[in-house]
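PROTEIN DESIGN WORKSHEET
SECTION A - STRUCTURE
LENGTH: 607
TOKENS:
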């Protein structure tokens, strides 16, 4: 949601409303809808940072009422399902990390979407041609790339393990926002327009998100009564009402028989998901990944996400260098080279550990990082792709070599992220997704939410040696990197971001900015981003290229401006973070401008 002034939005809403049952926004003082956004907030008693002011407000209310960070995170996540329906929601999955102030430990939940039991190795091959489906439009808008959703189960599991309120209680703020509506901002309208062609192909999606055939106007009120009803049902009957019964049947039916309009020409391959696949879904409690970086204990998400191993390995590589003593250009060069090396290893070794043997321990071994760091030439960028390292044979001594392997990267840049802390010092870092902006494009008819297209995160072409090959019942490799850093056992910084595989570099770059480049956390978030994922060119925001391009090209780095074929945004990530200041205050930080700017709030402001 953008920086629209409240009253202005209320007036615009009044003018734009053509909806019968819609609530007309009242004057600013009485209207609980949130449109003001502040990207930083400092104070006590708990804090939250998300991309959206309604979601942050929902979480803040829970914190104020005595709920803990987990209760607030679930309330905010459910609200994001309303206000950020193209990036998150119960049709998707995610990864939840939690710092428990009592035990001073970090624990995680893997709520990743899962392949149906009948998914074939050749599921992404078009039977009509014998060739792989095109990524766009066939794969992204399809039943075949919908994974069994994990988000509702993640909320329940998080509340069961660490929460203090019931599932039904946690859904209440979101139900209110869904019924009352939120003020459409330019980001929401643009995301709808970016998806217009495929949304129009499904009457269930078009009737919700393209009322009257157009994307909702900026300043209008968007309500989602179908989602409110779905949430109400879950609040009453629990998540069994999602994973079994009529809703599960409807999800399976949507996947198997995509509800296309009879006139669309869009090819929409069918998927195989059954109600039994949905009933068999479960989240997985996982130990976090861990590395120590310059005295900080950095905890991340273990496989099936590649976030923790890739951020962690990159930090182990960077730990070999005195980055703080380097020029900007030299330090950035090392940052770019380190992530390329870690991405080479991600490609070779990381997949769902239930199906492949992921050498997590070796990838995070400081000795392995040290040996990988030998490949960095301080003055020249290596030719990309660089080769993966050998996790079975390393001793921290240079040199080491292997044959280069190229990697195709088709991950998209959507998803959403939040950081929450409470008065007790617990911390949640949670990234949730439906894969690309707009997911599969298919709303389960009458239920108010979009199904994910997360299975596009599998490698498109099957190879038995690929850790991210398609297998039935498997979780596709993610890049989601919710990260919690501790200093002497206490939280120092928690952060995470959307952005497909650029999530890893966004989190890494922010840690590097904060720890090695002397930036504050808000500065570290705002700084222009660049992402080297072991490809010939570095993807970078235009501001990064303008600021550092001429300093880095002499090393041999070649830049390509960010932005993709699916969205009009040339941004990398939409991060949230909370830093725990030495004086006991917390500093919640969100993006100042990316994705329209985020929303940081604290219970008791004390700037
Ligand atoms: N599918 C991505 C992943 O799990 C997240 C999507 C995104 O951030 O856009 O890595």
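SECTION B - SEQUENCE
RESIDUE ASSIGNMENT:
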């Amino acid at each position: 949601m953008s920086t629209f002034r409240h009253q202005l939005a209320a007036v615009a809403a009044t003018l734009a409303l053509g909806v019968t049952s819609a609530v007309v926004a009242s004057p600013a003082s009485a209207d609980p809808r949130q449109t003001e956004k502040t990207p930083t907030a400092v104070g006590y008693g708990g804090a939250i940072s998300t991309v959206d002011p309604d979601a942050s407000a929902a979480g803040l209310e829970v914190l104020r009422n005595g709920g803990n960070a987990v209760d607030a995170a679930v309330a905010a996540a459910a609200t994001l399902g309303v206000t950020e329906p193209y990036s998150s929601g119960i049709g998707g999955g995610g990864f939840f990390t939690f710092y428990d102030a009592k035990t001073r430990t970090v624990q995680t939940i893997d709520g990743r979407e899962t392949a149906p039991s009948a998914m074939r190795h050749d599921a992404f091959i078009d039977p009509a041609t014998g060739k792989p489906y095109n990524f766009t439009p066939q794969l992204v808008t399809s039943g075949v790339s919908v994974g069994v959703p994990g988000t509702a189960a993640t909320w329940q599991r998080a509340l069961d393990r660490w929460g203090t309120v019931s599932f039904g209680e946690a859904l209440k703020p979101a139900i209110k926002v869904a019924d009352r509506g939120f003020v459409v901002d330019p980001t929401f309208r643009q995301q709808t327009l970016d998806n217009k062609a495929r949304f129009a192909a499904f009457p269930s999606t078009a009737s919700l998100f393209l009322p009257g055939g157009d994307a909702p106007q900026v300043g209008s009120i968007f309500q989602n009564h179908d989602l409110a009803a779905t949430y109400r049902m879950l609040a009453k009957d629990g998540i069994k009402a999602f994973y079994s019964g009529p809703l599960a049947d409807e999800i399976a039916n949507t996947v198997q028989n995509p509800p296309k309009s009879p006139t669309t020409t869009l090819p929409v391959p069918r998927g195989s998901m059954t109600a039994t696949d949905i009933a068999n879904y479960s989240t997985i409690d996982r130990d976090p990944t861990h590395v120590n970086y310059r005295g900080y204990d950095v905890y991340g998400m273990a496989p099936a996400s590649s976030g923790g191993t890739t951020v962690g390995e990159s930090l182990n590589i960077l730990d070999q260098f005195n980055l703080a003593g380097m020029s900007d250009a030299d330090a950035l060069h090392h940052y770019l080279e380190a992530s390329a090396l870690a991405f080479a290893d991600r490609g070779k070794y990381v997949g769902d550990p239930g199906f492949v043997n992921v050498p997590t321990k070796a990838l995070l071994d400081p000795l392995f990082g040290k040996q990988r760091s030998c490949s960095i030439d301080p003055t020249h960028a290596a030719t990309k792709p660089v080769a993966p390292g050998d996790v079975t044979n390393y001793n921290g001594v240079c040199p080491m070599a292997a044959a280069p392997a190229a990697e195709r990267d088709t991950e998209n840049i959507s998803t959403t992220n939040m950081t929450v802390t409470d008065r007790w010092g617990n911390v949640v870092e949670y990234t949730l997704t439906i894969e690309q902006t707009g997911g599969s494009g298919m709303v389960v008819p009458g239920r108010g939410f979009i199904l994910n297209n997360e299975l596009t995160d599998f490698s498109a072409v099957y190879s038995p040696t690929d850790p991210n090959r398609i297998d039935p019942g498997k979780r596709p490799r993610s890049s989601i990197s919710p990260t919690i850093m501790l200093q002497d056992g206490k939280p120092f910084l928690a952060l995470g971001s959307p952005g497909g595989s650029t999530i890893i570099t966004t989190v890494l770059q922010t840690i590097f900015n904060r720890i090695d480049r002397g930036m504050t956390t808000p500065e570290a978030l705002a700084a222009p981003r660049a992402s080297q994922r072991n490809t010939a060119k570095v993807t970078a925001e235009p501001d990064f290229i303008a600021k550092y391009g001429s300093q880095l090209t002499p090393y041999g780095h070649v830049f390509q401006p960010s932005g993709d074929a699916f969205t009009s945004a040339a941004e990398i990530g939409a991060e949230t973070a909370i830093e725990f200041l030495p004086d006991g205050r917390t500093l919640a930080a969100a993006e100042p401008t990316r994705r329209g700017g985020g929303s940081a709030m604290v219970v008791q402001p004390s700037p």
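SECTION C - NOTES
The pocket of glutamic acid is lined by residues 411-415, 433, 435, 454, 457, 478-480, 498-500, 503 (CB under 6 Å).
DSSP finds 20 helices and 18 strands in the chain.
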